Amino acid sequence: MNRPQDILTNLSSKSNQMATTLNMSGFANKDSLLGTDEKSDNVMNRTIGLDNHGLVSLQLQIIKVNKELDLHTRLLDNIDQQVDSTNSNLQKVQKKLAMLNKRIKSGCSCLILQPYAFLAYLIVFFFGH
Predict the structure, then answer these.
(1) Domain chopping of the chain, boundaries
(2) How far are the Cα atoms of 62, 68, 82, 86, 89 from residue 75, in angstroms, in the given order?
(3) Distance from first CA to last CA of the chain, Å, rounded?
(4) pLDDT, tens digit, for every residue of 61-117?
(5) Residue 55 in contact with residue 47, Cβ under 8 Å?
(6) What is the pTM of this model?
(7) 116, 120, 123, 125 alpha-carbon torsion, rounded to 10°
(8) pLDDT for 127
C-alpha cells in the first residue's frame, strides 16, 4: 500500500543514477576535449627554455589560435542558425504539400467523374430525343 512512496524512491534512485552517469560522462568528455593535466605539464616544459621574445611569440601564437577558434565558433553558430531556418522553412513547405496532396486526393474522384458525367450528358442529349 506504499505505492506512491515506492514510486518516489524508485524515481529518486533513477535520478541519482542519471546524475552520476552525466557527471562521469561530463568528466570523460572534458578530458577528451581538453586533455589531461599532462598537456599543461608539456606547455610548462615548452616555456622553460624560452626567453622573453620566445614567450611573447608563444603568446601571440596562442592568441591567434584563440581568435581562429572564436571565428570558427561564430561560423558554426551562423551555419546552425541557417540550418534551423532552412529546416523550419522545409517543414512549412512539407505541411503545405501535405495539404495540397490531401486536396488533390479528395478532388481526384471529382476530376475522374467529370468526364463520365459529361459523356452521360452527351449520350442523353443526342440519343435521348
Answers:
(1) 36-127
(2) 20, 10, 11, 16, 21
(3) 86
(4) 989 999 999 999 999 999 999 999 888 888 888 888 888 778 777 766 666 667 777
(5) yes
(6) 0.44
(7) -130
(8) 76
